[in-house]
Amino acid sequence: MAQFRFNALREVLNREPAAFVREENLISDYYGMMVFDQAKMKKYLSREAYKAVTDAIENGTTIDRKMADQVAQGMKAWALENGATHYTHWFHPLTEGTAEKHDAFIIHSADGGVIEAFSGKILAQQEPDASSFPSGGIRQTFEARGYTAWDPTSPAFISETTLTIPTIFISYTGDALDFKTPLLRALSAVDKAATEVCQYFDKNVTSVRTNLGWEQEYFVIDEALYMARPDLVLTGRTLMGHASSKDQQLDDHYFSSIPTRVNRYMQDVENEAYKLGIPIKTRHNEVAPNQFEVAPIFEEANLANDHNQLMMDIMQKIARRHKFRILFHEKPFAGINGSGKHNNWSLSTNTGVNLCSPGKNPKSNLQFLTFVVNTLKAVYDHQDLLRASILNASNSHRLGAHEAPPSILSVFLGTEVSKMLDLMEEAVVDRKMTPDEKTALKLNIGRIPEIILDSTDRNRTSPFAFTGNRFEFRAVGSSANNASALIVLNTVVANQLISFKKAVDKIIEKGIKKDEAIFQTLKDLIIESKPIRFNGDGYSVEWVEEAKKRGLTNITNVPDSLASYLRPENIALFNKMGVLNESELHGRVEVEYEKFVMKIQIEARVLGDIAINHIVPTAVEYQTMLLENVKNLKEVFSAEEFESLAGARKNLIREIGEHVSAIKALRKEMIDARKVANIITDIKQKASVYDTSVRPYLDKIRYHIDKLELIVDNEKWPLPKYRELLFVR
Ligand code: ADP
Ligand code: MG
């Protein structure tokens, strides 16, 4: 057994960095070459068809069948010229990752052979046999029909030899079965609500788009070591492993020189990404050993999210070439930093204004403050929903531990913006003044000074931070589909903007000037949302106390957190915003509960198996060796000498025995706890029982295994240790 571990280590030490052929050309020469983008559409489509697609992208118009046929012909021609043999509808089911089913372009020809064909009908809609995707009861297996439908706003691309068409995935009743459908609805809700608010400031604004810049953190592990850890292979995280004496204490990994093997891997990934039009910009070492980050230039949120999903897929695939495995799990290693996926979020107008960036003059600053304050209020009112969007089995290990945001939602604004809000809060706006007095007062918007942001004004400990021209939602987990967070964020912001507009209009109706009405309403929102503002250390214990005093919620367990989706007011909210109807919401939450239960169930089984198959036999073998040794000592030495020589050894034998017995007993208890949980039919209750009565065994059993790891002869230990997983490369 230990042989396996040492062979793996030897294999890693003998590795050469994979040969890497650098592209001869500039990135700009091959960027997007595998994407059916606007330039290619122009070349391959008729004028009419080109216009139909660009209209659909820009104005959300529908593409009729005739036009779709033309687009399909153009796409096919381009795809065949570029080596594609197959096509697929690509979608984001509620599982992790994406789904695809490839079909060859061929159909029978009259002469008994085949020809390549593709049509508007196939481009626009498909009916995959989708009965195995989770729907949370929306789709019964006997009516398993699910449809994928083309999303023209995210361009088709060629992945290896397959023309890949981004699509939504819905049931035959039109209910969303995926992440993309509600994401598109939520983006459109914000577009509508924000555009109306922008009309106060600029009549030329006709649309507002959401931008997303994701920062993806991940661990890189050598394939041989990974394969020697069944827990990593099956659960994506280590279920056991004593802390390495050295890990990240010296902060010597963050931003340090990127190891050559990893660097070659990154370049390889980036090349692929560029061909697929993913604008990767940044790569660096992260805090934990063997942890890294990749980030693109931000893009429109739906496209950016497709790109993130695609990128995660590419990263896994290319890792094989370099004999690596990528860990996207939020907490692959206990005791050191986990991985997140910061969602940098902003709104911008068709006139090119970033609504999350302070303007150059008082008027645009009032617009900026409008969006900041409304976002603040939305986060404050919907802390629980935002948390529910990001808290799951894996991310719950990360939140609140080692340099990760806690489960408490708060917003960091930085000194400058905070000062502005304080000024506005103190400004005299007396509702009871007569209209004449009010005119006299002429609430002077001019006093909003130019806001100069200090770029060092950062706070890494905040789960939701304003960073100069955007908000960063940092609590999002590394393995997540960003859509989960964005669906909620955009829904609550859209809702808030609508109620803001109502409030302002009401004041305007009373004959008060627009700017003043906006100012007054913002002032109210600033006061109401004050408790969510926190510029201090989000990692500190004091903050937990302080947040409690402020009445902020701090739900750390997944089942309770998920339940917030189904509060009547939240069901009404998603419904009103047209993002998710009640049955879609129920379905989604049920899927999340299922996932939670399955993940813990799998972890429990894997840990139980490894404990019995790997750990206990190894410990017993070592114990037997010690027993032999004691017996031999007894034979050779006098009774008196023997006692002093064998005392410590006997204790060690006892200690091993105790840990082994504890592991066996706890494993049995864990199995019994699972049996109790498994017969519960109510899925939320089942998840809660899994959380409270099965999950704790993972840590309890691990405790004894980790103790044994310290005691048992290194030569015998079967699993690569933390120090090896994190430092051997
Ligand atoms: P840091 O680690 O300092 O937060 P990075 O450069 O790693 O910054 O990542 C920042 C991310 O934020 C990038 O994806 C970047 O494109 C994105 N970003 C920058 N400005 C905006 C904006 N206005 N809206 C959305 N995302 C943005
Ligand atoms: Mg960042």
Structure, explained:
With 729 residues, the chain is an alpha+beta fold. The chain folds into 3 domains: 31-177, Glutamine synthetase, N-terminal domain (Ubiquitin-like (UB roll), Roll), CATH 3.10.20; 187-579, Creatine Kinase, Chain A, domain 2 (2-Layer Sandwich); 595-725, Four Helix Bundle (Hemerythrin (Met), subunit A). Strands 10, 11, 12, 13, 14, 15, 16, 17 and 18 form a 9-stranded mixed beta sheet that branches. Strands 1, 2, 3, 6, 7, 8 and 9 form a 7-stranded mixed beta sheet that branches. It has a two-stranded antiparallel sheet with strand order 4-5. Strand 11 (280-285) and strand 12 form a beta hairpin. Helix 4 packs across helix 5 and helix 23 runs antiparallel to helix 24 (683-711). It starts with a helix and ends with a helix. Bound molecules: adenosine-5'-diphosphate and magnesium ion. The site of magnesium ion (MG) has 3 residues, from loops.
Give a concise summary.
By secondary structure, this protein is α+β, with helices and mostly antiparallel strands. Helices cover 51% and strands 12% of the residues.
Mean pLDDT: 91
Q: Architecture of the largest domain, CATH level 2?
A: 2-Layer Sandwich
Helical content stands at: 40-55%
Structural class: alpha+beta
CATH superfamily placement of the largest domain? Glutamine synthetase/guanido kinase, catalytic domain
Distinct ligands? adenosine-5'-diphosphate, magnesium ion
CATH topology of the largest domain: Creatine Kinase, Chain A, domain 2
Assess the beta-strand content as a share of residues: 5-15%
Radius of gyration: 29 Å
CATH domain class of the largest domain: Alpha Beta
Query: How many structural domains are formed by the residues?
Result: 3
